[in-house]
Specification:
Blueprint: H1 2-12, H2 23-44, H3 56-80, H4 85-105, H5 107-132, H6 140-161, E1 194-200, E2 216-217, H7 232-242, E3 253-258, E4 264-270, H8 285-293, E5 297-301, H9 326-345, E6 355-365, H10 367-378, E7 383-384, E8 387-391, E9 398-404, E10 420-421, E11 424-430, H11 440-446, E12 448-449, E13 457-463, H12 482-488, H13 497-516, H14 524-527, E14 541-547, E15 551-554, E16 568-573, E17 577-584, E18 593-603, E19 608-618, E20 624-632, E21 646-651, E22 656-660, E23 672-673, E24 682-683, E25 688-693, H15 694-700, E26 709-716, E27 722-733
Parallel strand pairs: 1-2, 4-5, 4-6, 6-9, 9-11, 10-12, 11-13
Antiparallel strand pairs: 1-3, 3-5, 7-8, 13-14, 15-27, 16-19, 17-18, 18-27, 19-26, 20-25, 20-27, 21-22, 21-26, 23-24
Helix pairs in contact: 2-4, 2-5, 2-6, 3-4, 4-5, 4-12, 5-6, 8-13, 9-10
Amino acid sequence: MYRKLKTMFNGLLPFYPLSSINQNAIRIGLAVWSSLFLTFVCLTLLRGDIWLLQLAGPLLFIFGYILIGFVVGKAYFFLLKVKNNLLFSIFVFAPVVIRFLSAVYGLPAALLLYVLLFTTFAFISCYLAKLLKAPKRKIFSPYLAGSLLMSVCLLTAHQFFIQPQDLNRFLTEVKQDANRSAVADPTIKGPFDFRTFTYGSGSDRRRVEFAEQADFITDSVDGSLLLDNWHGITSWMRKLYWGIDVTELPVQGRIWQPITEQKTPLVLMVHGNHTMEHFSDEGYAYLGEHLASLGYIVVSVDQNFLNLTSAEGYFGFSKFRLRDENDARAWLLLKHLEQWRQWQASSTTDWFKNVDLDNIILIGHSRGGEGVFIAALFNRLDYYPDNANLKFDFNFNIRGIVSIAPSDGQYEPRGSLVELDAINYLTIQGSADADAMVFMGASAYARVNMDSEDFYFKSSIMINSANHGQFNSDWGDCDLQPYICLLAGQQVPVMAATEQERISKFFVSRFAETVTKSDRPYLNYFQHAQTAATFFPGHYFISNYLDSNSLIIANFENDANLSSGNAAKISAQGFTQWQELKLKHHPGWQWTNLNTHAVKLAWEQNPASFTLTMDASIIHNDKTCFAFSVSNALDENSSETITNFSLQVSDHDGRTAQVELQKYYQLYPLLTRKPKLSEKAFIEPTFQSVQIPLQDFAVANVELDLTHVHSLSFVFDKTSKGKIYLDDINLTKCVGL
């Protein structure tokens, strides 16, 4: 055995990478493969309306990292007074290759992978040199062929082993409504036919539909007071590509208009940040067509000129990029509404008195989702908060806003997050989102105040297996840089694009119908979104909900006193943990606050109880519900698949009645999320709203006096151990009753 091993080792010696006869071969192999890899990365960035300078940013970035490697290598060998061309080559290519690999796999894995790749290519290079007996300077073609072959083999093997992980297998147990066949599909075309138009500057250099083919010509607007970093490279690149500067931002959009004599509500949709050369406004046609068929005038607003471009530093040269522009996105939306107000008032236009400006809805995706939130704030102000030289005079009747997988906190007037009141709000997010990796819309949800005499509601909905890009039909299923998706694959299963569009159409159209019609016909889908699974078998929705009918008993925002609520005294017993805390989306990310406090309760044996005793007996009727928001704090690895407990109501004479949560709602473990291969899987607190009619407690105990409710209790007597968060405990008018 020893002799066989020795013979094998001696046979490999000619291919030993660091032997002097092979070092030139290794250097060529390393240079060829590194060049191929970097070319692959650059080519994946070429999307949309390709122009030469689209590669400027990546090429400058690559050159910069190679220069760093060159300088470090020279300094290393100068200080040690040695010369080794092979090690110098490793120094030159290491920074840039490791930088790209770390974006896919993380830095530790990238370092290890670089070593493994170098070693592998060293042996291949040596083998080819030995096999071909080629002169040192005439072996480039064999190395090119060998590098290509190995790259294909590695990528194929990688894709075979890197498969999406089903991190939420428990969802197969989610109960579905068996009566779907009896209900018409709500995402099919509505009763109205529609026409399409475009409006624009008439001089758009890249989009004929907004230039010579535009149906209506609009005036440009001056955004210089909002975009104070539109200068230097940013200004030069946009002038070169779009032919505009910051003082002449175009007001452009594509319209879907229902064919009807009725006065129709107006819906504006706006995209988020994406490669500006890969136009984004066309990707919401599926929403525009559907809403128009239901009787809404819909506009997909063009703001591509505010989006990023690799030409100005795609990979992190933020100093040279247009940034902090979400306030400008919001302002531009309101300038579109001003244009529609002019058209609606002018007898010379097709829309004279046909646009219902008392019913306006704004819809935004990604940064556009934050943009519509800011627009709702600006709409009610007299001045731009950051510069009073820009006066506002909007005051539109914006009935509701929809934020789809939004960003949050990129614009903070007075250094504070934007807060809203007296408006209807919907935010939706996918659990497979690898761009907005946490549900930032839930943070905005917490900052929408429901204290109003008029009726308003807010709802947040988490959609399992939806990603970021497929809310826009042109963005696709890759939420990251294309080369990252090609190398790493999908980390979690992502639903089909057509199904994600159907779900988006359902919730957006139901929201529009609810906020523009007096009878609010679809409110139940936002209070308990899982009922929508009737139309989407196999899909899972988690929804949180609150409306202005709610009487808050405890929302844990007042003080540090655990025994006090908004309108009740609090007591608890039997818990291993009873704590009020400010929640985060992700425990390791400091910037991802949920902007809400909640109470965390943990128990290891039942029963345990959490009781809210009213400051005064409150009179209710048969349409009142005991309501609250709850989030499981257990992950899928818990021994308890479903957390269950009882709800108890007591009257002023001490009579009690209980109902079981599971008869109304299923409280599953939190969705496990892993948006990137380089990120660890994590769970994010995701609240689910619960409403239980008080009348059901009277059925459980006919002697219970519901005219004077004295206390509300959570009794943990069903599940042996568990952890939950509770928030927004309230009494409210039941949705759907």
